[in-house]
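Hi Y.,

Following your request, here is the sequence exactly as I used it, all 174 residues.
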Amino acid sequence: MSPADPPSASGAVLGIDPGLASTGYAVLESGPARRLDVLDLGTIRTSPRTPHAERLAALHRAISELAERHAIQSAAIESWFVHPVSTSAMGMAEARGAILAGVATATIAVTEYSPTTIKAAVTGHGRADKRQVRLMVERLSGARPATDHAADALAAAICHIGSSPLAGVIRDAR
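Below is the corresponding structure, written out as tokens. Let me know if you'd prefer a different format.
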């Protein structure tokens, strides 16, 4: 998605918290009276004992399957904050690439949000800790994420749904 195309959250939204070992995902729809309906929520795990290329393929496959199963209309992914060059940073970059390729293969528009933007959208404060984010996504959605990664993915999807009405106003004003 280019900056000229603001996000749209009509239909099912896929929220993603990317990682090589653990990728959180959440599928949400905005229901009547702005209620959030959680359609799917979980964590995709890959083992460090599995060959690296197979781990990336598993992430790509899992995201593609989610997109197909739920007729995803748009996606929100946590953007990557700057890491020093390291093995874990390289793994994260490759995992994000596999995940983004899975989303793109399904022709889903994806919007990236910074961690501070996501935190501010769900808690009102961009420097909220994991506990605060989890508490607010539970209150807003009624879901109980099993992992912090799933909670962060749910937060990304909630951020996207909340950002979409304003984006529509901006798009229509052009």
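The beta strands are 12-17, 22-30, 36-45, 72-78, 109-113.

Thanks again,
Q.
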